[in-house]
Design a protein that fits this description.
The chain has 3 domains: 78 residues, Tetratricopeptide repeat domain (Serine Threonine Protein Phosphatase 5, Tetratricopeptide repeat, Alpha Horseshoe), CATH 1.25.40.10; 70 residues, no CATH class; 106 residues, Serine Threonine Protein Phosphatase 5, Tetratricopeptide repeat (Alpha Horseshoe). The protein is built from 14 helices and 2 strands, in the order H-H-H-H-H-H-H-E-E-H-H-H-H-H-H-H. The protein has a two-stranded antiparallel ribbon. It is elongated and about 70 Å long.
């Protein structure tokens, strides 16, 4: 069997645009240097993010308080969007240094989404878990955009070819009675099983995904699983539904990144072309990042 090319999701990494903090909070908590820096940073309003003026305003805020994470991350965004990853990394590292809890997940997501730096992302996600555990922080902080850090860990390992390890991480997370499944958890686990040719287990996950957040991707991959189980009726039915969902916009979508497990119309058309030729086909093609 040809290696599954699974397109992998992912949501927008925790908002590329960072909200301006409430300066009065720093004032009322006695952080006067931070308060002054915050007032200076407010002057970015009206300036284009890529402009010299925008960056200069944030530089002035850092001159007042060089230990404030916000300006570093705000400055870094323009470099990330423009493709200057070296400068982005220097700035986001500073943000992580001064506010680990609120920036480590974001850095890991960016490393995963934009650089395909799976090993680096794994380091960040594991470091965040250690940090939250050591600081006795709320474990809910491990979840952003309805995605648990363990889901990203699993996707990283899958992308590195360690699919069995990825499945183990996902199964462990989903088995936790205190955990509510994310919007794409069962889809991701299902495609992992599909990649391992465990079709019955894959279908089980896709059906669970159907109950939580039914998408074109879910219907396409369950169709593929049925194809390999020689269930032509279910294969054709779900493939038809996948196409309809795709045309209706019921799909994984993100303006900034290539989503995990995302499918395209060409994927469905290729299957239909095989059908018209009288061949169900013998390959699974999963676009794997």
């Amino acid at each position: 069997m040809k290696k599954l090319s699974i397109v992998i999701f992912v949501f927008l990494p925790i908002n590329l645009l960072l909200a301006q903090p409430n300066c009065n909070y720093f004032k009322y908590t006695g952080q006067m240097e931070r308060y002054k820096a915050c007032l200076a940073a407010e002057k970015t309003a009206g300036h284009y993010q890529f402009s010299k003026e925008f960056q200069s305003v944030l530089d002035s805020a850092l001159t007042i308080d060089p230990t404030w994470a916000y300006p570093y991350r705000a400055k870094s965004t323009a470099y990330l969007k423009s493709g200057d990853f070296v400068t982005w990394k220097k700035l986001i590292d500073k943000a992580v240094q001064f506010d680990t809890l609120n920036n480590l997940y974001y850095r890991g997501r960016c490393r995963f989404n934009y650089f395909r730096d799976y090993k680096g992302a794994i380091e960040d996600f594991k470091a965040l878990k250690r940090y939250i555990n050591n600081q006795n922080e709320n474990e809910q902080l491990l979840v952003h955009d309805d995605t648990h850090v363990d889901t990203f860990l699993a996707l990283c390992f899958r992308s590195l070819g360690e699919t069995e390890k990825a499945i183990k991480i996902m199964r462990s997370r989903l088995a936790d009675p205190s955990y509510s499944s994310g919007l794409f958890d069962h889809l991701h686990l299902g495609t992992m099983y599909l990649e391992q040719e465990e079709y019955t287990k894959a279908i089980e996950q896709f059906k669970k995904q159907e109950n939580i957040n039914d998408l074109a991707e879910n219907r396409f991959y369950i169709a593929i699983a049925y194809k390999f189980m020689q269930n032509q009726e279910s294969y054709l039915s779900n493939l038809k539904t996948a196409k309809r969902f795709l045309q209706q916009g019921k799909r994984i979508h993100d303006y900034y990144v290539e989503n995990i497990d995302k499918i395209y119309l060409t994927d469905i058309l290729e299957e239909e072309n095989n059908i018209s030729k009288g061949s169900i086909g013998s390959e699974i093609k999963l676009n794997k990042l």
